[in-house]
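G., the chain you wanted modeled:
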Amino acid sequence: MDPRSVEPFPPTWTDDGPPAHDRFPALPRSIAWEPDVDEPTLWRALEWGDLECWRRLVQILREQDRLAELEPSRERLAATASEKELTRLVDLCSSSFDAVSGARFQVARVTRFPADAVGMERCAALLAEVGSFDEAVAAQREALRLGNGATYFRLWPERTLRALTRGGRFDDAEELLRAYPGEMAAVFALALLLQVRGRTAEGEELLRRHPAADHFRVRYALFTLLERDGRHAEAAEVVPAEGWPLQMRREAERRAVESSPFTLPRVPPDDHPHWAIWSVDDFLGRAFAV
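Predicted structure as tokens:
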């Protein structure tokens, strides 16, 4: 960090103890941690290289509907920040719900510096979540090409795929889901995606031929698919002899009685295919949440 971003701003102490950058020494010293810093000082410090000011500025400008004013600084940093600085900026954007800037900084990181599969996966997810679907699919394809022996589907690829189905990009979602045959969540989503696209037989075959077809999770996905197809007798045959695990029964009971006047409408709406595609994964996630 440029030392000029530190020198004009000596540390202050309050009755509550030392400022945050002294309590958390792993973080760079920053004027953004001072409780009474004003907006012009934050802008000046950001210009000098105090990246921690980004999150504080986002908070201030969002409250005043002035986020567009960040664009010049965003483009300057995307073009000039180091790889380490770009990584920190992406994290700051994530914690301040600044999705557009986060995607921009991650794109800069993987285009200006060597990128591995995980970096491309993160790029794909951030792009997909701001609606840049074509760029997201290209980034995810590149991640798959690079390969990642320690791929964690839940971390970034699932976020990309959920954004694609939420946005109605079913062709792209189907292509990318097929790249994860060893991930149960991906297999379930693919089977139900095929069903909502009128290809129930393909989805059924995918589940019946799964290497772990007797696992209760795979059975539940098949049960769901058959029930939705109106084949109730066949669905009943899929239920394990001992019944579903207790956690699943309790989650089903909870959902049956749950209602609240304060529940916000979902985006997309409840009848959107997105929810049907991910319903099994969501149900199992809630049932077995720790």
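The CA atoms of residues 109 and 213 lie 41 Å apart.

Shout if anything looks off.
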